[in-house]
Amino acid sequence: MIMILMMSSLQQYLEDYGEKDYWDERYVKDIVKRPHFDWYHGYKTLKPFLQKFFKRQDKIMMLGCGNSALGEDMNLDHYLDIVNIDFSSVIIQDMIERTKGRVGLEYLTMDGRNMEFPNEYFDSIFDKGTIDAVMCSDSDNQNAVKMVAEVARVLKPGGYFVVMTYGAPEGRMPLFQVADYNWSIEMRMLGTHENAQMNECHYAYILKKNNIIIENGDAASSTDDNDTDTNQEEEFKVYLNSSIGKVPLEIIPIVK
């Protein structure tokens, strides 16, 4: 009976992660006790990884930014066009006040399932735990489906949507593998040392939106034959076994 009650309590706790009221209440407390909190890892640790996909001149969106310092830290590192969105007006107002006077750093109250941006607006988009939170209270995944569809809409051809998550392929690939989104998908594991096991790592899904070319009046997707992105040239020493086969382990040493 105790175990059942504990499991029920945990389930309710996780379901709250997808609710706006939960986050508003939590952020009211965090503003005083913990102004910044980064899920999984902060910018110093993630910098070498993110630099492979995000250029400093890119227009970048942080999806579900919360009170993460990631956007601020990237802005300090000369990324000068960062848009942070979150559906909690509580935390957005606090982040606006906290970063007042900063150039190239914008905070907007916005629901990732229904964004107000025009099509093909961003060069790159990063999600670190937002889809995870949404899926905690999303029994049929429809909220996550809407969010990914919106990302596909506002991402420019040639742009990257990078997702850092605890979600294994069987739970995330169905969200991403939609033909209409017209993107290629790469998966790798992010671990802090070369002996890291699967349960010590985070999944990274790297989705690159393909360019559309018109031939004889017909549209077709194409990747650039001259594409020399760093991630395409990388060689990995360690591969881990996942539910979809071997995937490369990328080492991201913790930097404090």
From TrEMBL:
Transmembrane segments: none annotated. It comes from Cavenderia fasciculata. GO terms for molecular function: S-adenosylmethionine-dependent methyltransferase activity. Belongs to the methyltransferase superfamily. InterPro entries: Lys/N-term_MeTrsfase_sf, Methyltransf_11, SAM-dependent_MTases_sf. GO terms for biological process: methylation. The keyword Methyltransferase applies. Keywords: Methyltransferase, Transferase. This is Methyltransferase type 11 domain-containing protein. Pfam families: Methyltransf_11. Residues 63-163 form the Methyltransferase type domain. The keyword Transferase applies.
